[in-house]
Amino acid sequence: MRLIFCGTPQFAVPTLLRLTRAPFQIELVLTNPDEPSGRGHAVKAPPVKRAALDAGLVVFQPRRFKEPFTRALLSHYRPDAIVVVAYGHIIPGWMIELPRFGCINLHASLLPKYRGAAPVPWAIVRGERVTGVTTMRIDPGLDTGDILMQHETEIGPADTTETLLERLGVAGAGLMAETLLELSQGQIRPRKQDDSHATLAPMLKKEDGRIDWSLSAAEVEHRVRGLRPWPGAYTSFRGKWLHIWRASVASEPLEAEPGTLIARAGKPIAACGHDSALELAEVQIEGKRRVSGSDFLNGVRLRPGEKLDTTTA
Predict the structure, then answer these.
(1) Number of other CB atoms surrounding residue 270 within 10 Å
(2) Which of 81, 92, 97, 103 has fewest C-beta within 10 Å?
(3) Pairing mode, if any, of strands 81-85 and 103-107?
């Protein structure tokens, strides 16, 4: 099968590498342009570009699809299928119609749940216990195309967006290869999505990380894991931002106003809604390094009734 591959982040790399093996032939890789990254703003190539070049593949990095050259180039290759994995662009109609087997997308959820840009973080934040990957045929809607195949996996109690994305990326690579093979053999019967069961997973914003201490401890803990690494779960403490990297639901409740911070057995415990409590296992005060909750307590010397909140530092 002659393929064009479209993808950008690390999540897409396992699928790219899987499709470099027979019976597939990737003739062109599309990925986002190189962008400044990190504190020094050094220009950095996306993970898919680095992997593609290492594999000896041809890479093309269009900023948009409106230029006639882009359409002419893709049409020149006459692909059997276009594979799209976390590319970051809306696929135009002419591109959807180009390959005979269509544009096949790997989406990191069990569609129709969690349509949108950030399915993995929102699945964890909302306390889902099961998620997965879906291969679907792209149509003009937002993740609304016909489902081809799906693979389920459990969300573990320690899973973060980082760990879950890594696992789903590997599972998705195998699922995409299987999907393409069965499509080429006419063995897949696409099925329509049930829009009544659809949920949305919009792109994350910085403010999504601000902790609302009126939520239950379990809900806050889900946010700590789901919003890692970005934007992270954060609050404020003594006029500075406090980033919470790891947390767990405390074994004993805490009857105090939400946001109240106390020390219990040498560990920082934050009061949450419904008289629940959250143990802060690893934190980072603005401008300082990450430390354990115990080291944090040793450094700040809590005062009675001291509170965390979500106001601007």
Answers:
(1) 26
(2) 97
(3) parallel
